[in-house]
């Protein structure tokens, strides 16, 4: 291969791709290391503040146990013979399944309603007050009625979680489509593209990126909705039942409630970052622009 062939754009494409991959991998590794460092630092700060506050105000162990006592309580054996950590994981998996189903139902509903509100001013003026009212109305007050109407199965609990999850998706999708530049729309129309193609090529990718950016908030709300929905339903295999059971024995076993609360928090964090990473990867794959060298004549 001659020097001229090596310096042609077609020959440089593979090398450029390798360079971009190396740079992206380095940045990703640094981002992961930075995230781990921040998590460990935050955990250390929480431990320090917890123990200092306990010592400074002389809080008894029955009210505020030591953190190492809470961590050790994960290995305790429950009255039914099960390990506490294993029982928490099993209960949490049920709740996270409800939250995941509710999340994607909320994404579908919020995305469709957001597109409708962005495309129709009448729909926007009509739906927005109603949707805002669904978020301001106390969920704890209407969950028992919804459980009676929809039943106490996991499907009804997932739908209740979707009530909380859909709103940030709706707002993000509607805003992304509404804020699309008029010049961009005119450019696409000047190419002779119909309205459907303009929506699919210009507005839909913006809406997809908006869903990715708001998915963390929606996931967290779906987890909260699933936990709250389990309380009046009396579902015995969810994390809410373990929270209620531990709360009733707080004076004699305070570590149990903190274990259940920490497990719920950890499960919510895992689900939030898992859904965020999955949606980001899907968006990068769907919006990728392949660079293929043309054949030289």
Automatic annotation (TrEMBL):
Q: Which PROSITE patterns match?
A: ABC_TM1 (PS50928)
Tell me a GO cellular component: plasma membrane
Listed Pfam families:
BPD_transp_1 (PF00528)
Kindly list the residue ranges recorded as spanning the membrane.
Answer: 31-50, 101-118, 130-151, 157-177, 207-229, 249-274
Annotated ranges, domain ABC transmembrane type-1: 92-279
The answer on whether this UniProt entry bears the keyword Nuclease reads no
Species for this entry: Mycolicibacterium tokaiense
What is the name attached to this protein's record?
Answer: Binding-protein-dependent transport system inner membrane protein
Q: Name the protein family.
A: Belongs to the binding-protein-dependent transport system permease family.
Concerning InterPro entries, the annotation shows:
MetI-like, MetI-like_sf
Locations listed in the record = Cell membrane
Q: What UniProt keywords are attached to this protein's entry?
A: Cell membrane, Membrane, Transmembrane, Transmembrane helix, Transport
């Amino acid at each position: 291969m001659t020097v001229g062939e090596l310096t042609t754009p077609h020959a440089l494409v593979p090398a450029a791709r390798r360079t971009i991959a190396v740079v992206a991998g380095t940045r990703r590794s640094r981002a992961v290391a930075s995230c781990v460092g921040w998590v460990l630092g935050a955990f250390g700060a929480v431990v320090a503040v917890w123990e200092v506050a306990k010592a400074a105000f002389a809080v008894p162990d029955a009210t505020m146990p030591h953190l190492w006592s809470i961590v050790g309580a994960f290995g305790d054996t429950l009255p039914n013979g099960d390990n506490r950590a294993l029982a928490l994981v099993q209960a949490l998996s049920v709740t996270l399944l409800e939250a995941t189903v509710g999340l994607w139902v909320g994404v579908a509903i919020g995305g469709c309603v957001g597109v409708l509100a962005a495309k129709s001013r009448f729909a926007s003026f009509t739906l927005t007050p109603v949707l805002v009212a669904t978020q301001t109305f106390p969920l704890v007050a209407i969950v028992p009625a919804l459980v009676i109407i929809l039943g106490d199965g996991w499907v009804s609990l997932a739908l209740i979680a979707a009530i909380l999850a859909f709103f940030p998706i709706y707002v993000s999708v509607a805003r992304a489509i509404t804020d699309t530049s008029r010049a961009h729309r005119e450019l696409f129309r000047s190419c002779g593209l119909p309205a459907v193609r303009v929506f699919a090529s210009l507005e839909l990718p913006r809406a997809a990126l908006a869903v990715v950016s708001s998915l963390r908030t929606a996931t967290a709300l779906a987890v909260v909705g699933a936990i709250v929905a389990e309380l009046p339903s009396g579902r015995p295999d969810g994390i809410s039942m373990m929270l209620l059971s531990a709360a009733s024995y707080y004076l004699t076993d305070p570590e149990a409630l903190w274990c259940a609360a920490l497990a719920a928090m950890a499960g919510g964090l895992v689900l939030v970052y898992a859904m965020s990473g999955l949606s980001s990867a899907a968006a990068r794959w769907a919006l990728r622009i392949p660079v293929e060298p043309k054949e030289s004549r």
